[in-house]
């Protein structure tokens, strides 16, 4: 097996794992335990998928730059979502949901593009995923007077 085939196998394996693990993380209860473990595994799959995508793109005769951009955006959103969750600043949860679920949508978009040669493959995951992400982030938003930033700063003084 040559290096290109090995990289491609790692890329496809990480992509499949990311799709499965990401779905499981999105469905897991949002508590310490499975959700956190699955989130870490998802981060690993995204990192492997992105790094192999960049190497494969660098060695390809015709580079699919649209997919490279999606790979980098997937990694950036997943990593930013992880950082937001680690820091847990006030109001962090809706941003964490938006970033990590957004990275999953871009994962699905890339998989759709590779397996379905239709312009809809570029658009459909976003059209379906964006309203669901907005709904989930809105549900996670803190409520009540203490959630308002100006009042929160006033109360903290």
TrEMBL record:
Domain of life: Bacteria
Annotated TM spans: 6-28, 40-59, 65-85, 92-114, 120-137
Record key words, sorted: Membrane, Transmembrane, Transmembrane helix
Record-given protein name: Integral membrane protein
Organism annotation: Kineococcus radiotolerans
């Amino acid at each position: 097996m040559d290096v290109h085939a090995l990289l491609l196998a790692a890329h496809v394996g990480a992509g499949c794992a990311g799709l499965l693990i990401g779905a499981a993380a999105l469905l897991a209860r949002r508590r310490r335990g499975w959700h956190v473990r699955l989130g870490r595994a998802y981060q690993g799959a995204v990192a492997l998928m992105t790094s192999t995508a960049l190497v494969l793109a660098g060695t390809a005769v015709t580079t699919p730059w649209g997919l490279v951009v999606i790979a980098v955006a997937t990694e950036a959103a997943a990593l930013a979502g992880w950082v937001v969750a680690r820091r847990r600043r006030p109001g962090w949860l809706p941003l964490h949901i938006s970033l990590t679920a957004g990275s999953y949508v871009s994962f699905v978009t890339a998989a759709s593009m590779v397996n379905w040669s239709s312009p809809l493959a570029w658009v459909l995951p976003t059209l379906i995923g964006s309203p669901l992400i907005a709904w989930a982030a809105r549900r996670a938003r803190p409520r009540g007077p203490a959630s308002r930033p100006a009042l929160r700063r006033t109360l903290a003084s």
